[in-house]
Amino acid sequence: MDINKFPAEPFRIKSVEPVKMNTREERERIVKEAGYNTFLINSEDVYIDLLTDSGTNAMSDRQWGGLMVGDEAYAGSRNWHHLEDTVKELFGFKHVVPTHQGRGAENILSSIAIKPGQYVLGNMYFTTTRFHQEKNGGVFIDIIKDVAHDAGKNVPFKGDIDLQKLQKVIDEKGAKNIAYICLAVTVNLAGGQPVSMKNIREVSQLAKKHGIKIFFDATRCVENAYFIKEQEPGFENKTIAEIVHEMFSYGDGCTMSGKKDCLVNIGGFLCMNDEELFQAAKEIVVVYEGMPSYGGMAGRDMEAMAIGLKESMQYEYIRHRVLQVRYLGERLLEAGIPIIEPVGGHAVFLDAKRFCPHLKQEEFPAQSLAANLYLESGVRSMERGIVSAGRDPKTGENHVPNLETVRLTIPRRVYTYKHMDVVADAVIKLYKHKEDIKGLRFVYEPKQLRFFTARFEEI
């Protein structure tokens, strides 16, 4: 590995949080008490926490300073106006509705934009997004390129929508029966894979031709912009902000979890250009989130989000963020560890099918691999496979995705390259005795979003 291609952290550490490492005997007890579900392990019992990058970011000194100027008025907070102006400037949409986090925006959009029986087309599903779409009567159809389902295929922009699939659905279902296209940038469950500007543009042209709206899942749009700048000809001299603005110029709105690329710990928003949808969204946000000028967020959180969104557009920051993830991926690849290739923007995904070939997918190999990684090292990760996919709401049968993965998700501005080395060493050590990893079965299975609270036992 050429260590010189990985930049040093573009920040200085001003505050620290001590962490501890439990003994293996303690971790054996902890993982059993948690029902082999890493979501149910207490934070204080985790050494390196790669469960998620959602809300686990380290804020800057300017963001912390912004907390002190929080205007906690119930309506018309100046922090709301700062956030609204920032989002409009950077994203280019006409209207912004604040929410407590991304799934609040997903809920509102699904409520106002989907009629029962309509189809929602997307470049691979995401768990909470699909839940809200189906809860409001929508039927999800995956139109991502087939290569996205092949973990070992190393090609750029695996998040692209397949235009032939899109046209086929339009022809078969009819444009009027399609609620909207949900275009994720990047695609989380495909391994954090980006979408090219060329594909975004072509999808937009086809959608406009048939009068179909496009709503982005903008959660990791800054990471997507970095890949475009790095890998797509014609964008190498564009700023990250210019690329983000152009991406969204091809859509009708977006949902945003501010807990990722906005570099904060809570919050989100919904954007749109349509005036009628905006009025409907404002009516619903009052019922479920709060006033249209805070939407479940405190004034101080809106101020930190506005500042963080601008900081995320800085090239030095996003370059380090993506390359730190890539560093971990390259260390694992050099050791022969099976992962999703190429390495995406926010996480390294272990390919549990190839990691644990002795386990059937119905024995939840990714869930067991995540639990055993914690047992081995105190590193917390999460399953992204058959457990996360859930069950078909009509048949009750398990959705069986092609990808069965464990996500090693890197929080922003939290860990160093040495932490990545610790994680890599732990995965490599576990791989050497992977045959010891046992399958799991449900002890408790919730009806919705089961991966959050389900419990398991070893077979």
UniProtKB/TrEMBL annotation:
One Gene Ontology MF term: tyrosine phenol-lyase activity
Record has Ribosomal protein as a keyword: no
EC number: 4.1.99.2
Keyword Glycosyltransferase found: no
Enzyme class: lyase
Catalytic activity as recorded in UniProt: L-tyrosine + H2O = phenol + pyruvate + NH4(+)
Family: Belongs to the beta-eliminating lyase family.
Protein name: Tyrosine phenol-lyase
Lineage of the species this protein comes from: Bacteria, Pseudomonadati, Bacteroidota, Bacteroidia, Bacteroidales
Gene: tpl
